[in-house]
Amino acid sequence: MNSIPSMDRHIQQTNDRLQCIKQHLQNPANFQTAATELLDWCGDPRAFQRPFEQSLMGCLTVVSRVAAQQGFDLDLGYRLLAVCAANRDKFTPKSA
Asked: Which residues form the ZMIZ1 N-terminal domain (predicted)?
């Protein structure tokens, strides 16, 4: 019985962290650190579980919008989007 609240807490904490990363991705000074953390996180197949999908999509939307802009890192943004595209079979059809 105790594992369900623990799992809910883990999901909430992970989604909260993804929201924080999403905010940092919008700032050129923080983009590289945030994108690197997200890239590392996406290296784990558990990153693509359904409870995290909406938050992850929010981050990827920001990356796709800002990575090519001055002060951001296009290569890092591309690598992040490529890792997620390679795992698109784990997403719902809408997100894929």
From this structure: 11-96
Give the C-alpha separation, 12 to 88, whole Å: 23
Q: Where are the beta strands (DSSP E) in the chain?
A: none
**Side chain identity at 12, as an amino acid letter?**
Q
The string of pLDDT tens digits covering residues 66-76 is 999 999 999 99
Residue 16 is given by DSSP the state H
Return the structure tokens found at 14.
């992970």
Q: Are 95 and 64 in contact (CB under 8 A)?
A: no
Q: What is the C-alpha to C-alpha distance for residues 86 and 55, in angstroms, rounded to an integer?
A: 18
Alpha carbon separation from 13 to 25, 72, 79 (Å, rounded): 18, 27, 25
Closest among 82, 90, 72, 87 to 29, alpha carbons compared:
72
